[in-house]
Amino acid sequence: MRLRYKPWAKDKLNEYPQYSIQQPEQYKGRWEEVFGNDHPIHIEVGTGKGQFVTGMAKANPHINYIGIEVYESVIVSALDRIIEADLPNVKLLSVDANDLSKFFAKNDVERVYLNFSDPWPKVRHEKRRLTYQSFLKIYEDLLIDGGEIHFKTDNQGLFEYSLMSFSKYGMLLKYISLDLHQSDYEGNIMTEYEEKFSAKGQRIYRCEVKFQN
Ligand code: SAM
User: Fold this and answer.
1) Which annotated residues bind S-adenosyl-L-methionine (predicted)?
2) Contact between 90 and 19 (Cβ < 8 Å)
3) How large is the ipTM?
């Protein structure tokens, strides 16, 4: 993603603590206090400008969503969407996915979404891919038993790599589509990247995998 640095982003995120969670460490194991209910929590890691989490939150008012994005200059666009839609069931966290265990305890989350994650095609960058083994361990440690990852990408190489990574980790493949937009899958909410790449005629790969614990 081309990143335009926005020096004011941090201040704006701080102005809306009802949407952009400050000091998230304090909510580890207590996220129901943030949402004011104990509905299931689904997180999107690498949420970008937030079109997906916002769309999902509108479509599923009884699920709580948390969009996680490392760059404040990017997630601030997600904040604008949430302010405009005034949604109570979506929050944002501007943190690195490597640090998620500081903010979430086992069973805090029911599902992890990974959408159009950066492919990091060079072998020496494998550890940065959000489907690398160390990230799977992080997700497993915050999910409920049998929790799921739902993954979409336009990148065939990353999709193949990720299927191998899920398999090596002992995960169960529940659903796969090699051409999501031509499939019978219903209720798809498009991300920004998905709109961009599918408009160019690129096919979208999607899978659902489950931890076997
Ligand atoms: N999910 C959005 C979509 O489909 O339109 C954005 C996709 S964009 C290619 C990937 C996003 O993941 C970027 O905004 C990037 O900053 C974020 N990201 C990459 N690595 C991350 C990490 N370790 N922790 C949090 N966010 C990360």
Assistant:
1) 44, 69, 96, 118
2) yes
3) 0.99
Residue-level pLDDT at 118: 98
Is the pTM for the entire model greater than 0.95? yes
Is 32 annotated among the ligand-binding residues? no
Query: What Cα–Cα distance (Å) separates residue 96 from each residue in 2, 71, 101, 201?
Result: 18, 8, 11, 31
Specify whether the CB–CB gap between 91 and 65 falls below 8 A. Answer: yes
Domains with residue ranges and CATH for the chain: 9-210 (3.40.50.150)
> pLDDT tens for residues 150-179?
999 999 999 999 999 999 999 999 999 999
Structure tokens at 3: 């990143």
193 annotated ligand binder: yes
Q: What tokens were used for 120?
A: 């990091």
192 ligand 1 Cβ < 6 A: yes
**151 CB within 6 A, ligand 1:** no
Q: Is 118 a catalytic residue?
A: yes
